Amino acid sequence: MRERRAFQNARRAREFEGFVAGAAGRLLHAATLLTAEPPNANPRARRLLTLALAHTYASWDRLRGEDPYDRARQQLAVRFARGAWHQYGALGRSRPSPSGVGAGSVAVLARLTPQERLVLVLRMYEGVAEEQTAALLGLPVERVRAICARAMTTLLHPPRGPAPTMAKVVPS
Questions:
Q1: CB-based contacts of 90, cutoff 8 Å, min separation 6
Q2: pLDDT per residue over 82-105, tens digit each?
Q3: C-alpha angle 163-166-171 in degrees, rounded to nearest 5
């Protein structure tokens, strides 16, 4: 009996290791987008991924045909939403400051609220349907659509800074 249990545990560990080898990179990238941290300095994203993978491993035997990637992505989203809720008071009420964030897409994503980032990453990066995103977040589909549209508008039409000053040219 012990041998059988040991064999099952070894098989489970191999299956999970194979899953992590194939999916961890994409999940880490999604977590990094959610946290708006630079890719080379992303401790919050790595912690988020570790917790999501730990939960997925704990429920590995109960997946029964369910896609483990979907389960891990769901845990990533739920844990990010909970963390953002506690960190910012309420998901989406305040915007984190983009200062200290690396250049490129990370700085752009830092302008979004955590809720906007979550919806945008699920919808645009992960390709999750509006209905599934709404069910995952406990929101009406229309609300998900509005949040996604607002986030896209913020990304495509960033606020402009002050107009540049024209230097006076003195004729010589």
A1: none
A2: 887 656 544 444 444 444 434 456
A3: 170
Q: Confirm if 90 and 82 have CB atoms less than 8 A apart.
A: no
pLDDT one-digit tens code per residue, 20-45: 999 999 999 999 999 999 999 999 99
SS3 of 20-84: the string is: HHHHHHHHHHHHHHHHCCCCCCCHHHHHHHHHHHHHHHHCHHHCCCCCHHHHHHHHHHHHHHHHH
By the 8 A CB rule, do 137 and 119 touch? yes
Question: Among 56, 90, 85, 88, which Cα is nearest to 73's?
Answer: 56
Q: Which amino acid is at 7?
A: F
5: tokens are 């249990």
